[in-house]
Each structure stands twice: as C-alpha cells, then as structure tokens.
Design brief:
165 residues, alpha+beta, 7-stranded antiparallel sheet, two-stranded antiparallel ribbon, 3 helices, 9 strands, binds flavin mononucleotide
Length: 165
C-alpha cells in the first residue's frame, strides 16, 4: 500500500473544520477536528473521531454530549486557538464568550452553526483516533456558509500530535 497515494487522496478532499466541545463534572474541553461526518440519514447521526492524545478525548469518553461547531472561512483564529493549544496547558474557554448546555457543555457564541450530539456509541478499533457517534438533539444555523477547510489551517500545528499518546 502506498502511504503517499493514500495521503494525497485524503489531502485532496480538503475537509471542513469543526470545533468539538464537551464537559464532564465541571471540566470543559474542546479541540479542532477534521475527522467528522454525517453517518446516518434516518435516524440522523453524526460521527467525530477524537485523538487519544487529546485532553478533549479524555473528557469526551466520560461525557454524554458533544457540541460540534462548524467553522466558517472567517474562523481561522478560532481554529488556531482550539487546534494549536491544549487544555492540558491553558484554559481555552477563559477569554471566550460561551453558553452552556444543561450538561455544562460549552457552546461557542462566535459560532452560529452547530449541532449538539447525545452520544449513542463509541468505537475504538485500536488506532490513534476513536469514533464517537451521536444523535443530534439540537441544531442551530444562521444560514448557508462557506466552511473553513483544512488547506486554510496548514499553518496550525496540533497542540498534541496524534502519536503523543
Ligand atoms: C488541521 C488539524 C486537524 C485536526 N484534526 C483532529 C481530529 O480530527 N481529531 C482530533 O482529536 N484532533 C485533531 N486535531 C488536533 C487537536 O485539535 C489538537 O491536538 C488540540 O491541541 C488538542 O487540544 P486538547 O488537548 O485540549 O484536546 C487537529 C489539529 C489540526 C491542526
């Protein structure tokens, strides 16, 4: 198998970026995520894949809810904040306007396009990322938007490399 060909194909897809937030017993977490997708039409389901190296993963495995914030082409700085910093070292929410769900999951006021997921299943097939599937229990959007894509955040270096774990 050619890793180069595989990587070329995946990079060419230029996926849209999201910020996934979660919380458990008052601890908040969130990170930039490129691995995500709608995973069922009826019933509607969404999946996100979180790196075992990330603090967000460690909170998410204990949490029941995840908020998926869909970034727009104007959100580069937010992507750098959530993708370039780790909650192991800084409080990413300290200077941000956030609302809270009933479970205390932070909702980023700056992001008008988001889906709140109640986790339905989790799959760890032994790789460096774990799949979280959830039922959308709330969704808000201010209308059609241009997503922030992977190619626009190539300058952001992950706060945790996937092989940190
Ligand atoms: C372009 C880009 C894409 C990323 N995609 C993912 C992803 O799909 N899943 C994930 O768990 N982390 C992903 N990361 C890494 C995390 O966003 C990053 O390591 C973050 O600092 C982790 O923060 P935390 O330790 O507070 O959770 C990505 C980072 C970048 C820069």
């Amino acid at each position: 198998m050619s890793d180069d060909a595989f990587d070329t194909i995946m990079r060419s897809l230029d996926p849209p970026m999201v910020v996934v937030t979660t919380a458990f017993e008052g601890e908040q977490a969130g990170c930039l995520v490129g691995f995500h997708a709608q995973s069922s039409i009826e019933p509607r389901r969404c999946a996100v894949w979180l790196s075992k190296a990330n603090r967000t993963y460690r909170i998410a495995v204990r949490a029941t809810s995840l908020a998926v914030h869909f970034l727009t082409s104007a959100d580069h700085d937010l992507a750098a904040h959530f993708g370039g910093l780790t909650g192991d070292e800084v409080d990413k929410f300290a200077d941000l306007a956030v609302g809270l769900t009933e479970e205390g999951v932070p909702l980023l006021t700056a992001c008008p396009h988001r889906v709140l997921l109640r986790r339905t299943s989790l799959m760890d097939e032994g790789g460096d990322h774990v799949c979280f599937v959830g039922e959308p229990v709330d969704a808000v959007s201010s209308g059609p938007f241009v997503p922030l894509r992977l190619s626009a955040v190539s300058d952001v270096h992950p706060g945790h490399a996937a092989d940190d774990c």
